[in-house]
């Protein structure tokens, strides 16, 4: 095995790529260190996963409170639902930022799983990335975010927030139409001196932008954890 102290050390060399095999055959110092590193990365993944869940919980709780108050009396203003849309959107931004941080540690854990543990279990398949050690080293030296704000927003919208914002939209439309049948719905949609048509236009444009962010095709940069497959393939081999 190449001496790690040598000036000619190359983490992409064949013998260095096969560190997974050596972890099974021998108790190496690097293998012990990597076990602790992996444990630390998984712990941080779990911590940031909890932070994501906490943001979603707060968004759902506030949304439920706003919906309850908005329909508790016909005299309550409809624009409280628009305030709810704004608040949930703020939570979306917070969660997208947290998702970018979460993906940093998830990506590192996946690199170790794919190239170290998977290769240790079955060296015949080789490694996913020949320069994975150099790649991981660079990220520890200079940590970088792996996904853009756009991708993070799209991910959280698809997973949670598009459904929450859709519920608020349906509730608002119901509030200005069926819940106030004696008035024209455009009149009901007015907010102070802002005409109803302007309010409806702004809300419509906002949701068109949301749909565009959610479904517009874009290249995925997040390191995936799960892939679709046939569960019977796994069960048949157990």
From TrEMBL:
<keyword id="KW-0472">Membrane</keyword>
<keyword id="KW-1133">Transmembrane helix</keyword>
<feature type="transmembrane region" description="Helical">
    <location>
        <begin position="78"/>
        <end position="96"/>
    </location>
</feature>
<dbReference type="InterPro" id="IPR014470">
    <property type="entry name" value="UCP01500"/>
</dbReference>
<dbReference type="Pfam" id="PF10028">
    <property type="entry name" value="DUF2270"/>
</dbReference>
<feature type="compositionally biased region" description="Acidic residues">
    <location>
        <begin position="1"/>
        <end position="10"/>
    </location>
</feature>
<keyword id="KW-0812">Transmembrane</keyword>
<feature type="transmembrane region" description="Helical">
    <location>
        <begin position="160"/>
        <end position="180"/>
    </location>
</feature>
<feature type="transmembrane region" description="Helical">
    <location>
        <begin position="192"/>
        <end position="216"/>
    </location>
</feature>
<keyword id="KW-0614">Plasmid</keyword>
<protein>
    <recommendedName>
        <fullName>DUF2270 domain-containing protein</fullName>
    </recommendedName>
</protein>
<feature type="region of interest" description="Disordered">
    <location>
        <begin position="1"/>
        <end position="22"/>
    </location>
</feature>
């Amino acid at each position: 095995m190449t001496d790690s102290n040598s000036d000619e050390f190359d983490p992409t060399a064949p013998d260095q790529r096969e560190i997974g095999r050596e972890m099974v055959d021998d108790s190496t110092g690097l293998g012990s260190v990597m076990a602790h590193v992996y444990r630390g990365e998984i712990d941080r993944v779990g911590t940031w996963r909890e932070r994501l869940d906490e943001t979603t919980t707060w968004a759902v709780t506030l949304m439920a409170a706003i919906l309850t108050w908005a329909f508790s009396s016909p005299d309550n203003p409809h624009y409280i639902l628009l305030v709810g849309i704004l608040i949930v959107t703020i939570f979306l931004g917070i969660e997208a930022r947290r998702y970018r941080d979460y993906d940093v540690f998830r990506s590192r854990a996946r690199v170790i799983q794919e190239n170290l543990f998977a290769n240790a279990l079955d060296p015949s398949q080789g490694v996913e990335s020949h320069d994975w050690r150099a790649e991981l080293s660079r990220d520890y030296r200079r940590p970088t975010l792996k996904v853009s704000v756009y991708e993070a927003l799209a991910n959280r919208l698809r997973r949670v927030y598009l459904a929450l914002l859709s519920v608020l939209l349906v509730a608002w439309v119901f509030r200005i139409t069926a819940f106030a049948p004696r008035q024209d719905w455009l009149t009901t949609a007015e907010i102070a001196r802002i005409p109803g048509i302007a309010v409806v236009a702004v809300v419509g444009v906002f949701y068109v932008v949301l749909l565009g962010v959610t479904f517009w095709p874009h290249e995925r940069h997040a390191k995936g954890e799960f892939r679709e497959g046939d569960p019977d393939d796994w069960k048949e081999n157990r």
